[in-house]
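Try this one yourself first.
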């Protein structure tokens, strides 16, 4: 199959809370005339992101219960194989990886699996960088890998850092990946035309980073201090109690909370509440109204370091109306 017949693939990565889902929404709105398959992977056994992604012409496929770069790689190949067999043509695939993913095995999948290689072409590997919090995580294995394998580094939350901090971060990223283009955003607001269809992926650069990429020996180990917990509750929550609990979490647990997000069923409100948090930055907004035939349920996922399951569960139960 020639390059003209291949389906372009955008791989969107970045550490927990960098803004990948917000960026994905911007990109999808900018490509509303295309048929796009979106593959979302979450670290944990649930995907809140499907509630947060805008609904346009895209087909959203979720991979849960594992990191896409580890035990679900076979699932990824199966999904891609099924997409090839669909009667309706797909213009593009966008893969949003979990914040804990090393991009190398994902890239490897598109280069080494013969059927996948013939049908798809990597357009770009975009790594989102949380300009405010990245320094706290550079000692972790995953952010360094995500930065190293990118051909575009999207520095998000630029409104939260000073000019001097920007210059320091720019130099640090150049040291880690001198080949990647650096792009600056706030609230992940960028024109899709500035990122999509650029064919910026360069295999030679990738092989300089990892000469063994095309050898089937890739192993990836997550930091075992980082865990994820999911809580669900069909009974309504009390708004004041929820506010008190989150104020406590942000103030006293924020350092260890890498990412927390979810959908809340609040007794006092007819609409669901959608919230997202990164460390001590937290925002909650009213989402769409619950449908009459829809099951009302709160669902929260916490991802962080040295989290205490019992303490979080007790806090969640405290919020019941």
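Now uncover the answer:
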């Amino acid at each position: 199959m020639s390059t003209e017949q291949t389906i372009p693939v955008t791989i969107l990565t970045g550490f927990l809370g960098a803004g990948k889902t917000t960026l994905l929404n911007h990109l999808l709105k900018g490509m509303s005339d295309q048929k796009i398959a979106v593959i979302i992977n979450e670290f944990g056994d649930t995907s809140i992101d499907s509630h947060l992604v805008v609904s346009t012409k895209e087909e959203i496929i979720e991979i849960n219960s594992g990191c896409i770069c580890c035990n679900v790689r076979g699932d990824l190949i199966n999904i891609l194989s099924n997409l090839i067999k669909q009667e309706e043509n797909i213009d593009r695939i966008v893969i949003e990886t979990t914040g804990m993913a090393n991009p190398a095995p994902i890239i490897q999948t598109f280069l080494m699996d013969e059927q996948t290689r013939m049908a798809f072409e990597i357009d770009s590997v975009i790594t989102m960088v949380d300009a405010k919090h990245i320094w706290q995580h550079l000692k972790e294995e995953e952010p360094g890998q995500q930065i190293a394998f990118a051909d575009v580094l999207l520095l998000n939350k630029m409104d939260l850092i000073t000019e001097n901090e920007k210059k320091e971060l720019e130099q640090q990223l150049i040291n880690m990946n001198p080949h990647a283009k650096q792009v600056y955003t706030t609230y992940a607001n960028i024109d899709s035309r500035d990122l999509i269809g650029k064919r910026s992926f360069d295999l030679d650069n990738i092989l300089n980073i990892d000469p063994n990429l095309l050898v089937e020996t890739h192993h990836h180990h997550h930091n075992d201090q980082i865990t994820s917990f999911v809580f669900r509750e069909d009974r309504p929550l009390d708004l004041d109690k929820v506010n008190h609990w989150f104020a406590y979490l942000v103030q006293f647990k924020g350092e260890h909370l890498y990412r927390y997000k979810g959908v809340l069923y609040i007794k006092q409100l007819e609409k669901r509440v959608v919230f997202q948090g990164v460390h001590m930055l937290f925002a909650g907004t009213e989402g769409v109204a619950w449908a009459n035939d829809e099951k009302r349920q709160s669902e929260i996922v916490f991802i962080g370091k040295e989290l205490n399951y019992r303490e979080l569960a007790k806090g969640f139960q405290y919020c019941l109306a």
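Discussion: The longest strand covers residues 120-130. The mean pLDDT is 81.
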